[in-house]
Specification:
It is built from nine helices and twelve strands. It is an alpha/beta fold. Strands 8-7-6-9-10-11-12 form a seven-stranded parallel sheet. A five-stranded parallel sheet has the order 2-1-3-4-5, with helices on one face. β9, α7 and β10 form a beta-alpha-beta unit. The protein binds NADPH dihydro-nicotinamide-adenine-dinucleotide phosphate and oxalic acid. The site of NADPH dihydro-nicotinamide-adenine-dinucleotide phosphate (NDP) has 31 residues, from α3, α5 and β7.
Length: 309
């Protein structure tokens, strides 16, 4: 069984080592691959060039290195009928929950304000709010959204979530569909976006959404840059309607040097690192899935390409 790996070189080697340790019969080859394309059974990829995966006539499944599959779903030349599997692995999930807690607490504890005071050498207390005074609303109740909410539970925030289909989660007020969005947003003092990028979620963080949030709300985008209308966010921050934003993903990555987010005092930003797949734990998920398929069983976490996630 041969697996083609396309990720950055450093991580590619980490993947190959971890895979071989978990599945000695598996042969791994790194992209770009100059051998016979017919020999490739599986591909584990991040942002392959458009049309690349069509070159392998015997591909049985495509594994995304990341949880998001927009880098694959947006390829008009993806080989037809080959299942695409998104990444679900504990290291990636834990990393995202850490980041969401960090970002929520940053806004809850006025860290942007204290950073501004520090720049001006101002020593002043800002009255603290108890956690239960704020609602954290998570857009997307998938693997990552649900774990982030579970991780937030002990802090005592009121918790809400929004998804496409109805959900029931203990301790979380759940909303769904376009009908539930307005009420969900109206209560969200801190809004976290953990949606996949699809035709429906593109531009969802726009001026209409921001207008529905309570005055002084904060926005955390860890989904995809394409979900945020950046100029609408800047306008909502500059008008004071939103108190701050934490951004990990951007329309254009790397963020252009001249972009106002780099220096905006109400923005905390990171370079798309909210969470990363951890090869050592992720290989177990990939190997188990390959073994499932090789044994004639169904793959887990297959993406519905029509739905886009
Ligand atoms: P899942 O597929 O497990 O969950 C997606 C969730 O979004 C589901 O609850 C789904 O609803 C909901 N959803 C999708 N479309 C809509 C819609 N139109 N309206 C309402 N809800 C919708 O994804 P994950 O939790 O694993 O990952 C989420 C995203 O996080 C990834 O796609 C990726 O873009 C991003 N990500 C970012 C990282 C970073 O470092 N910044 C790292 C990893 C992931 P339903 O349950 O009803 O289907
Ligand atoms: C992912 C990411 O989708 O890192 O996993 O963005």
């Amino acid at each position: 069984v041969t697996l083609l790996i396309k990720t950055d070189i450093e991580r590619g080697n980490a993947w190959a080592d971890a895979l071989t340790a978990n599945y000695p019969e598996l042969k791994t080859v790194n992209w770009p691959y100059k051998g016979d394309p017919a020999k490739i059974d599986y591909a584990l990829v991040w942002q392959p060039p458009r049309g690349e995966l069509k070159r392998y006539p015997n591909l049985k499944a495509i594994f995304s290195v990341g949880a998001g599959v927009d880098h694959l779903a947006s390829d008009p030349d993806l080989p037809e009928g080959v299942p695409v599997v998104r990444m679900v692995e504990p290291g990636l999930t834990a990393g995202m929950s850490e980041y969401v807690v960090l970002a929520v607490l940053n806004h809850h504890r006025f860290i942007l304000d204290y950073a501004a005071q520090r720049r001006e050498k101002v020593w002043a207390e800002i009255p603290q709010l108890p956690a239960e005074a704020r609602q954290v609303g998570v857009l997307g109740l998938g693997v990552l959204g649900r774990d982030a909410l579970e991780t937030l539970k002990p802090f005592g925030f009121r918790l809400a979530g929004w998804s496409r289909s109805p959900k029931s989660i203990t301790g979380v007020t759940c909303f769904h569909g376009s009908g539930g969005l307005g009420e969900f947003l109206a209560g969200s003092d801190i809004l976290v976006c953990l949606l996949p990028l699809t035709a429906e979620t593109t531009g969802i963080l726009d001026k209409e959404t921001f207008a529905k949030l309570p005055a002084g709300a904060a926005v955390i985008n860890v989904g995809r840059g394409g979900q945020l209308v950046e100029e609408d966010l800047l306008a909502a921050l500059d008008s004071g309607h939103l108190s701050g934003a934490t951004l990990d993903v951007f329309q254009k990555e790397p963020l252009p040097k001249k972009h106002p987010f780099w220096t905006h005092p109400r923005v905390f930003m990171t370079p798309h690192i909210a969470s990363m797949t951890v090869p050592e734990s992720a290989v177990r998920a990939v190997v188990a899935n390959i073994q499932r398929l090789e044994a004639g069983e169904a793959l887990q976490h297959v993406v519905d390409l029509k739905r886009g996630y």
